[in-house]
């Protein structure tokens, strides 16, 4: 088990190093380079050279990268072009809002997907199964921002049940979480359905029934414990998508998280902040993946002992 | 011997894409208290469906028990409610399956799966249940039961897993054990061990066994009485010695001829020509007649009923009946 965790950690470090290289290369792709962006279009060649020198951009690429990497490792993500404030504290202070939204969206997705997915598999080809499948297709095909706008129109503007924006009261998280979680619910539902259908054919369910267990225990305990494994993998893959979705949804609902912050800085071409944000998201995804791997091992003894 | 289980005219059907097929067509058999009855036949003849029908575990849909009665201690299992059936499963009638590799849930420890079986039917404290499980594991010959208790199925060999399955089935001391090909998936040496274990446990606990198998060697080793099935019907029933000495049905004779023997010098094993008919396209009359060396016109027209021939024997064949006498002699002399 310890070796399993260690292996996962080492793999994550590799992934993160790759991400830093990608993020660093992004800066090199900016037309005209950062100097032009700071100074504006009218800058003279001398001004540009001076800014480049001040920023250290006239050094060889690998030196720039290593210098940047060592700073990043020490928690120094650089300063914003916009307001010259250190980036990391600004990002971290917005992290709780984003994590809250993420958790709420995941909760909503599971709340919808688990019961419908199980019912769909157990009552295969029934009316409920068909409705569930249409629902899943809708979830996957509707863009989250559009669901968000619809929700605002109905529940905030017309019915006035929920606030349309902000994080002042706890009800504020409901609509963005639904908008964000809906697509994931669709995918998870399909995944739970097909995974459970596979397991329902297994011999050990016959054994469980022959013991005299009730159908509820046979499905929820014996079948689901096995069917959940591929679902966990799907959740892990979907978390990355969800994180990307926060950028749009936080903007739609004026949610004070990293996503919206980053969206605004993107409009202002604040490259260092965007880099910091990308890195932070990558770290977040890696951490969540490690957690899923651990969950996987927790649920499947065959992994734990191999 | 008072019958513990009596199946009368059981009909089980399955809805398939090609329409409704009849997997069991009027199966009747009985198992006495403490008796071991072997249910024999080729794959697809309905042996497993019979056993699943007894416990009402035929997957439905597509399967359905259409007609018949299954009397267990005089009560019709088909008339019982699902909660009543759940009390019978595992407590009065237990079952072990062919595939020990896939019959245990891979994500739970063996111990917890046994505890679950006991806890379902008996009110015991956790400590008592564990003690009972360890006792059961010792009884089925698992070394180091304390250690094995916390192991997962994938950490055990096939033989060990089948021992765990047997332990699980017998932990509530059932009156009837249905063993569906319990040794088929195992190595030959392990097969013998598992059979010995079943014989030993039967002596100790006194339960009746309905042994489902296609292996005549296993039948000879364990059974007192044999029921032979072919294409969803019982075609012969006899005490085991009688059946091996003088099989009455041509199909049974074919089955026995296909066992390799050391005492008879033969270049080739006996085989039964042709294949088991598919459930969707059953031949008319006797279902075995297209493959039968003694078949005559009557066999293709009318279904032979299972009739008693004395000495506890039954056979469903026109051979030896007045209508068949002439035709039978003709084909025998051919």
Describe the structure.
The complex is a heterodimer of chains A (306) and B (334). With 306 residues, chain A is mostly helical. Chain A has 2 domains: 2-73, no CATH class; 94-268, MetI-like (MetI-like fold, Orthogonal Bundle), CATH 1.10.3720.10. Chain A contains 13 helices and no strands. Chain A has helices at residues 2-28, 33-39, 45-55, 61-73, 87-122, 127-141, 144-158, 174-200, 203-210, 215-252, 258-267, 271-299, 301-304. The longest helix of chain A has 38 residues, at 215-252. Chain A is globular and about 85 Å long. The model of chain A has no long low-confidence stretch (mean pLDDT 87). Chain B is α/β, with parallel strands linked by helices. Chain B has 2 domains: 3-92 and 174-333, P-loop containing nucleotide triphosphate hydrolases (Rossmann fold), CATH 3.40.50; 102-169, no CATH class. Helices cover 35% and strands 24% of the residues of chain B. Chain B has helices at residues 47-54, 82-88, 100-103, 110-121, 126-139, 145-149, 158-170, 188-205, 216-222, 240-245, 250-257, 297-301, 325-333, and strands at 3-16, 19-32, 36-40, 63-72, 75-76, 93-96, 176-180, 208-213, 225-230, 233-239, 307-310, 313-315. In chain B, helix 4 packs parallel to helix 7, helix 5 crosses helix 7 (158-170) and helix 7 (158-170) packs parallel to helix 8. The longest helix of chain B has 18 residues, at 188-205. Chain B starts with a strand and ends with a helix. The chains are: A mainly alpha (306), B alpha/beta (334). Chain A binds chain B through residues 202-204, 206-214, 222, 225-226, 299-302, 305, and chain B through 52, 55, 57, 86-91, 94-95, 97, 99, 102-109, 116-117, 120-121, 152, 154-155, 165, 168-169.
């Amino acid at each position: 088990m310890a070796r399993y965790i260690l292996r996962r950690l080492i793999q994550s470090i590799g992934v993160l190093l790759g991400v830093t290289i990608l993020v660093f290369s992004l800066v090199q792709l900016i037309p005209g380079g950062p100097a032009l962006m700071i100074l504006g279009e009218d800058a003279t060649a001398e001004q540009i050279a001076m800014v480049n020198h001040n920023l250290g951009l006239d050094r060889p690429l690998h030196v720039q990268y290593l210098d940047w990497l060592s700073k990043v490792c020490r928690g120094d993500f650089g300063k914003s072009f916009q307001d010259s404030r250190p980036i990391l504290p600004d990002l971290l202070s917005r992290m709780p809002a984003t994590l809250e939204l993420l958790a709420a969206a995941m909760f909503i997705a599971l709340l919808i997907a688990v019961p419908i997915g199980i019912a769909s598999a157990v009552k295969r080809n029934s009316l409920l199964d068909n409705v569930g499948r249409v629902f899943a297709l809708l979830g996957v095909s509707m863009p989250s921002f559009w669901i968000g706008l619809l929700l605002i129109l109905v529940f905030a503007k017309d019915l006035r049940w929920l606030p349309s924006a902000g994080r002042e009261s706890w009800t504020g998280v409901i609509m963005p979480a639904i908008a964000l979680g809906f697509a994931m619910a669709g995918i998870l539902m399909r995944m739970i359905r097909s995974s459970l259908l596979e397991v329902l054919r297994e011999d050990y369910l016959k054994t469980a029934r022959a013991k005299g267990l009730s159908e509820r225990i046979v499905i929820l305990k014996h079948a689901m414990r096995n069917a959940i494994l591929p679902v966990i993998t799907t959740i892990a893959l979907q978390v990355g998508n969800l994180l990307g979705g926060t950028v749009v949804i936080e903007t739609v609902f004026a949610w004070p998280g990293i996503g919206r912050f980053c969206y605004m800085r993107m409009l202002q071409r604040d490259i260092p902040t965007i880099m910091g944000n990308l890195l932070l998201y990558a770290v977040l995804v890696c951490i969540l993946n490690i957690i899923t791997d651990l969950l996987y091992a927790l649920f499947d003894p065959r992994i734990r002992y191999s | 011997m008072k019958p513990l289980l009596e199946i009368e005219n059981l009909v089980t059907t399955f809805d398939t894409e090609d329409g409704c097929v009849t997997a069991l067509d009027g199966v009747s058999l009985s198992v006495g208290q403490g008796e071991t009855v072997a249910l024999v036949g080729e794959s697809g003849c309905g042996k497993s469906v019979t056993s699943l029908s007894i416990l009402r575990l035929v997957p439905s849909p597509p399967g359905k028990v259409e007609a018949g009665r299954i009397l267990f201690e005089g009560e019709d299992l088909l008339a019982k409610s699902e909660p009543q059936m759940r009390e019978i499963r595992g407590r009065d009638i237990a079952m072990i399956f062919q595939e020990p590799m896939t019959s245990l849930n891979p994500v739970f420890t063996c111990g917890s799966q046994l505890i679950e079986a006991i806890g379902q039917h008996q009110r015991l404290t956790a400590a008592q249940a564990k003690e009972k499980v360890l006792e059961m594991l010792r009884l089925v010959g698992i070394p180091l039961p304390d250690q094995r208790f916390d192991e997962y199925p994938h950490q055990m060999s096939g033989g060990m897993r089948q021992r765990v399955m047997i332990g699980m089935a017998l932990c509530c001391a059932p009156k009837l054990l249905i063993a569906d090909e319990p040794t088929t998936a195992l190595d030959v040496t392990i097969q013998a061990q598992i059979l010995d274990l079943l014989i030993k446990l039967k002596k100790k606990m006194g339960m009746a066994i309905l042994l489902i198998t296609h292996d005549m060697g296993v039948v000879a080793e364990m059974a007192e009485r044999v029921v032979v099935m072919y294409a969803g019907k019982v075609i012969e029933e006899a005490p085991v010695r009688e059946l091996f000495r003088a099989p009455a049905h041509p199909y049974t004779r074919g089955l026995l001829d296909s066992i390799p023997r050391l005492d008879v010098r033969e270049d080739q094993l006996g085989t039964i020509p042709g294949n088991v008919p598919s459930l969707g396209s059953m031949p008319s009359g006797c279902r075995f007649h297209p493959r039968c060396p003694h078949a005559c016109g009557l066999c293709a027209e009318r279904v032979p009923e299972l009739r008693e021939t004395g000495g506890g024997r039954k056979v469903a064949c026109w051979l030896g009946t007045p209508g068949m006498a002439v035709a039978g002699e003709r084909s025998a002399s051919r």
